[in-house]
Amino acid sequence: MKAIFLTSSPFGPLDNSRAVEGFDPMNSLPENLSRFWKKNARCLVISAFPSDIPGCIKMRESMEQSIRVNFPDMTCLDIWDDRTEDFSAQTLASYDVVFLGGGHVPTENEFFKRIGLRESMQDYDGLVIGISAGTMNAAEIVYAQPELEGEAVDPEYRRFIKGLGLTKINILPHYQMTKSFMLDGMRLFEDITYGDSCGRRFLVLPDGSYYTFADGRGTVWGESYEIADGEIRLICSDGEYRTYGVDEYTHCDQCIRGCPVDQLRCANGRRRYFEVTGKDYCSDGEIPKDSGAAYRRKIRERRARKNSGG
């Protein structure tokens, strides 16, 4: 996959607190997208409410209008819903950009399963943009935060379901709107989500912020919070960005050793681990002893390549 952009609301805040035309410029989203957006791109949006045909038509038209503000040469914006007959991986591969639409997470998740999207996405080589529920369903294991009346108290409601497997990050969108939300007589975050975060991490985004995975690195852009083990903390502010996602950060990049993140040897590597995760470094196992021989060999090899002009 070329790049993944997981947004809360890419075309402006849902509460209309700011007027936006096109992609929301608040945290450099249009500029970052332009790095991966092909000229004359063929685009597809996959609906979260495939049986609501009038709603699908309206959504597609609104999205096309917004996209053309920034990318007027877009060739097409097609939509997959219950009218679609061909959901094949070959057809998916014909699109340069795929939007995962917003809506009700479990409803969209069932549609994704029905059309075999997880399997089709494994070999997709274009740009993926998640919107709200689409962002949530992009995860390996989705946290389907209760949303509708009755879901928080329904013993049959599944809060953790299999997603598309595009990331291990669980994202909760629209925080500026939902942080004070009450559901089934409980506070959505303090009484429901905080408890569900035990042993897990949730990345919480207000509209205007987003997460990317590109060039081998996960990055969060704009105001962002992390909920873990029942606590919340600010990890990034508007106008800023930071590396995020220890699941994608597998090897240290601070020296030539390239240690795995569970076997960091140097202070710089451990400092980098803290920058990425927000947590002090603690190895999961015994760190192997290092005589330094391998390190010195790599240094000699690098010097030899430099001297030979390689």
Share of residues in strands: 15-25%
CATH class of the largest domain: Alpha Beta
Question: Order of strands across the widest beta sheet?
Answer: 3-2-4-5-1-12-13-16
Largest sheet: 8 strands, mixed
Plain-language structure description:
With 310 residues, the chain is an alpha/beta fold. The protein folds into two domains: 3-243, Class I glutamine amidotransferase (GATase) domain (Rossmann fold, 3-Layer(aba) Sandwich), CATH 3.40.50.880; 252-310, no CATH class. The chain has ten helices and 16 strands. The chain has an eight-stranded mixed β-sheet. Strands 8-11-14-15 form a four-stranded mixed β-sheet, with no helix packed on it. The protein has a two-stranded antiparallel sheet with strand order 6-7. The longest helix has 18 residues, at 53-70.
